[in-house]
C-alpha cells in the first residue's frame, strides 16, 4: 500500500514538474524581475536598478496579441526623473534582438572579447566601464519574435508586425505605454538604432511625434541602412569605392605610396574622386570613351587594391559580394561583410562570392552564450524560452519605406531634434559613405546642417566591439546627449 502511495506521489510530482516546464516555455504577457547593481564609469560609481520583464502589445480592442521582452536600467541615485534622459534602444535585422548593443555597447555589462572584437573562451561578460548609464537611463526592447518576445494570439496576422510600417506602428504604441507607465514623459528622450534599427527609429520618431505627441531630443543612427532614400543605378555602384579603399588600406594591399598615408588623409581624397569622377562616368555607361574608361579603372584599382581588369570587366561597378571574395583571393582568404577586418576560408578560392560572412559567424560565437548566462545569473530572469538572436519575422514587407524623409520631417517640425550618425569605415553591409549620402539627401536645402553630425570609426558594423572604439563611440553618444538638452526655459522655435 505504501509503495502504491509513493508511486502516485511520484507521478503527481512529475506531472507538476511537467506543467511547470511547459509554463516556463511560454512567455508571460506581463512580468518584471528587479535587481540592483552598480558599475564604475569613467572612475565614478553608478548604482542602478535593472528591470527585466515583458509587457503586452494590444490590438484595437484592448486584447493582448503579443508580448515584448525588455530590459530597463535606471540610475538609482537620481530622484529627479524629469531631467534625467531616457534612451530607447533597438537593434535591427529585421529579426534581430537588442542583444548586440545591450551586451556590447551602451549597457552596464559587455561580453568577453579581445581588444579587436574576436571571441575568446571561456565565454562570459564583465562590467562595461564605458556605458552611458552615467548620463541616461536605457531600455532595450526586443521586437516580436526576437529575444524572448513572442506573438500570444495565434489568430493575429503576421502582417500586424512584420513590415517597415507595421513594425513602426505597434512599437510606437508599446513605447507610448512604457513611457507612461514609467512616468518619463518629462524626460529628455532619445532613440538609438543599429542597422535595420536605424530604419525603425527613423520611422518611430515621426510616428511618436505625430501620432502620440511625444517629442525627442535626439536620434542616434548606428551603421544606418538606406532609410528608403533612393540610390539605385550609378549612385549605388559608385558609392562603395571609399569603403573599398578603407578596407584595402586596413589589409595593407594598397601601393606603398597610399599605404604610407593615414586613413583620415586618404578617405577625403577617395570620396571626392567618387563624387566628381566615378559617379558621372558610371552614369554615362557605354557612351564613356574607352580611353577614359581605362583611365578611371586604373585609378579605382589604385584606390581599392583590386586589379584594373576587375573594374573593366564589371563596367566600373564591382559588387560588394565580389570584393569580399576578390581582395585577398591570392592569399586564399575572404573578408567579412559586416566587418571587413575579419578573414575567412572558403571551400574553394574560385567564385564570385564567399561561402559565409566571417564577421557574423565570429560574433555569434560570443553573444549567444554570454546573454543566456547574463539573463539567468545577473538579471535573474528565468525561462525555458529560446532567446532568439535572429527570430522568424519573414516575409517582411519592405514596401513604402519613407523613413529617411520621416526623420527629416520630424527634424523640421521639432527644432530640438538632432541626429548623430555613427559608422565603421570597414563595414561593408551598411557602409560609411552611404551613411553620409543619407545625411545629404535628408537635408537637400542645407537648413539642418547644424543638427546633423557624423562620427567614423576604424572598425566595422559593430564599431563598439573594438576596445578603442567602444570608449570613443560611447563618449560621442554621451556628448551628444549633453549638447542636445537645452537650457531650462529655452523655447522650441526657429
From TrEMBL:
Matching InterPro entries: AB_hydrolase_fold, Peptidase_S10
SUPFAM superfamilies, per database record: alpha/beta-Hydrolases (SSF53474)
Alphabetical keyword list: Carboxypeptidase, Glycoprotein, Hydrolase, Protease, Signal
Coiled coil feature spans: none
Signal peptide: 1-21
One Pfam short name: Peptidase_S10
Gene3D superfamilies: alpha/beta hydrolase
PANTHER family: RETINOID-INDUCIBLE SERINE CARBOXYPEPTIDASE, SERINE PROTEASE FAMILY S10 SERINE CARBOXYPEPTIDASE
The name this protein goes by in its record: S10 family peptidase
Amino acid at each position: 500500500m505504501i509503495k502504491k502511495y509513493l508511486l502516485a506521489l511520484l507521478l503527481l510530482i512529475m506531472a507538476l514538474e511537467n506543467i511547470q516546464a511547459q509554463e516556463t516555455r511560454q512567455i508571460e504577457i506581463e512580468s518584471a524581475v528587479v535587481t540592483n547593481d552598480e558599475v564604475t564609469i569613467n572612475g565614478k560609481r553608478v548604482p542602478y536598478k535593472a528591470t527585466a520583464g515583458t509587457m503586452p502589445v494590444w490590438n484595437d480592442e484592448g486584447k493582448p496579441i503579443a508580448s515584448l521582452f525588455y530590459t530597463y536600467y535606471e540610475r538609482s541615485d537620481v530622484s529627479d526623473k524629469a531631467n534625467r534622459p531616457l534612451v530607447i534602444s533597438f537593434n535591427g535585422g529585421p529579426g534581430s534582438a537588442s542583444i548586440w548593443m545591450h551586451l556590447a555597447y551602451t549597457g552596464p555589462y559587455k561580453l568577453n572579447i579581445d581588444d579587436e572584437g574576436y571571441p575568446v573562451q571561456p565565454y562570459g561578460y564583465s562590467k562595461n566601464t564605458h556605458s552611458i548609464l552615467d548620463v541616461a537611463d536605457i531600455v532595450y526592447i526586443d521586437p516580436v519574435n526576437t529575444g524572448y518576445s513572442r506573438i500570444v494570439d495565434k489568430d493575429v496576422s503576421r502582417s500586424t508586425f512584420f513590415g517597415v510600417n507595421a513594425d513602426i506602428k505597434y512599437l510606437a504604441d508599446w513605447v507610448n505605454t512604457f513611457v507612461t507607465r514609467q512616468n518619463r514623459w518629462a524626460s529628455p528622450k532619445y532613440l538609438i538604432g543599429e542597422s535595420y534599427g536605424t530604419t525603425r527609429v527613423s520611422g518611430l520618431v515621426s510616428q511618436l511625434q505625430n501620432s502620440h505627441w511625444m517629442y525627442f531630443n535626439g536620434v542616434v543612427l548606428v551603421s544606418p541602412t538606406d532609410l528608403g532614400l533612393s540610390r539605385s543605378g550609378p549612385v549605388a555602384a559608385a558609392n562603395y569605392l571609399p569603403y573599398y579603399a578603407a578596407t584595402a588600406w586596413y589589409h595593407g594591399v594598397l601601393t606603398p605610396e597610399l599605404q604610407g598615408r593615414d586613413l583620415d588623409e586618404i578617405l577625403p581624397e577617395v570620396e571626392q574622386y567618387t563624387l566628381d569622377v566615378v559617379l558621372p562616368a558610371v552614369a554615362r555607361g557605354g557612351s564613356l570613351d574607352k580611353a577614359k574608361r581605362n583611365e578611371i579603372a586604373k585609378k579605382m584599382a589604385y584606390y581599392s587594391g583590386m586589379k584594373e581588369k576587375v573594374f573593366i570587366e564589371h563596367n566600373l561597378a564591382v559588387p560588394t559580394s565580389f570584393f569580399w571574395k576578390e581582395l585577398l583571393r591570392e592569399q586564399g582568404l575572404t573578408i567579412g561583410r559586416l566587418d571587413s577586418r575579419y578573414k575567412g576560408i572558403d571551400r574553394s578560392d574560385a567564385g564570385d562570392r564567399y561561402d559565409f560572412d566571417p564577421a557574423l559567424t565570429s560574433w555569434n560565437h560570443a553573444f549567444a552564450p554570454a546573454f543566456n548566462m547574463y539573463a539567468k545569473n545577473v538579471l535573474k530572469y528565468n525561462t525555458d524560452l529560446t532567446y532568439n538572436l535572429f527570430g522568424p519575422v519573414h516575409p517582411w514587407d519592405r514596401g513604402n519605406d519613407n523613413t529617411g524623409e520621416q526623420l527629416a520631417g520630424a527634424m523640421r517640425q521639432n527644432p530640438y531634434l538632432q541626429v548623430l550618425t555613427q559608422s565603421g569605415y570597414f563595414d561593408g553591409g551598411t557602409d560609411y559613405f552611404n551613411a553620409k549620402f543619407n545625411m545629404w539627401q535628408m537635408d537637400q536645402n542645407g537648413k539642418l546642417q547644424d543638427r546633423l553630425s557624423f562620427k567614423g570609426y576604424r572598425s566595422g558594423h559593430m564599431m563598439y566591439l573594438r576596445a578603442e572604439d567602444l570608449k570613443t563611440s560611447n563618449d560621442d553618444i554621451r556628448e551628444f546627449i549633453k549638447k542636445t538638452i537645452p537650457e531650462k526655459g529655452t523655447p522650441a522655435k526657429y
